[in-house]
Amino acid sequence: MQKMIQYQKETFSEATMLSRSQQFYHWLDGRRTVREFSDQPIHKAVIENIILAASTAPSGAHKQPWFFCAVSDPAIKKEIRTLAEKEEYENYHGRMSEEWLDDLKVFGTDWHKPFLEIAPWLIVIFRKSYEIDENGKKHNNYYVQESVGIATGLLLSAIHQAGLVALTHTPSPMNFLAKILNRPAEEKPFLLIPVGYPVANTQVPDLKRKTLSEMSYFYE
């Protein structure tokens, strides 16, 4: 039986709750994906705290089926960029459908990914379908995709909260990341996230998010 402890959580009046929820929404609404990174360094402790924040996510049976690799080594970043661009070139020249390519045209993206070397840190998130204990016995994890997805959302929020920017990059297939970083068989790449400061005068698309009525319905 899991040991239980007293739960403690600060609560607020209805008016304060409304104000705090509005403020949090407007603050988080300012989060944007950025592709133009500065090479300005970031202290390792900041990245450590961001990863710790992500690790507070709920997970199936509290298995915590994630692993985070934080990379600042220029040689490793260069290797990641080289193989990522190789996969992305194939994506842009045959793997992606015409509809997909048309949807991307408005953002001006292509297979070149210089940010993978410029950003001071790359965080590679791995999902773990199972664990291997000290005796070599396999133990399954549960709701892995969902759990790691929630942890990634918290990671992006923590990056935003620290005053930094990020890009969710998926150079599919991503198996080369496990090889470069020497990760075990039970770990599969989930996302590659450059983290850093934006360059001065960074431009981002003028996107419009779906309205509340377009993405939700209240059954009252």
Write a concise keyword list for the protein shown above:
single chain; 220 residues; alpha+beta; NADH Oxidase; four-stranded antiparallel β-sheet; two-stranded antiparallel ribbon; 6 strands; 40% helix
In brief:
This protein has helices spanning 14-28, 44-54, 74-95, 98-105, 115-118, 144-161, 175-180, 212-215, and strands spanning 66-71, 121-128, 130-132, 138-140, 165-166, 187-196. With 220 residues, it is α+β, with helices and mostly antiparallel strands. The protein starts with 13 loop residues before the first helix and ends in a 5-residue tail after the last helix.
Mean pLDDT: 93
Q: Can you name the CATH architecture?
A: 3-Layer(aba) Sandwich
Indicate the structural class. alpha+beta
Placed side by side, the strands forming the largest sheet appear as 1-2-6-5
* Rg of Cα set: 20 Å
- How many helical elements? 8
Total number of domains: 1
In the predicted model, the low-confidence regions spanning at least 5 consecutive residues are none
Q: What this model shows, in words?
A:
The chain has 220 residues and is α+β, with helices and mostly antiparallel strands. The chain has one domain: 3-Layer(aba) Sandwich (NADH Oxidase). The chain contains 8 helices and 6 strands. The chain has helices spanning 14-28, 44-54, 74-95, 98-105, 115-118, 144-161, 175-180, 212-215, and strands at residues 66-71, 121-128, 130-132, 138-140, 165-166, 187-196. It has a 4-stranded antiparallel beta sheet with strand order 1-2-6-5. A two-stranded antiparallel ribbon has the order 3-4. Strand 3 and strand 4 form a beta hairpin. The relative contact order is 0.20. The model has no long low-confidence stretch (mean pLDDT 93).
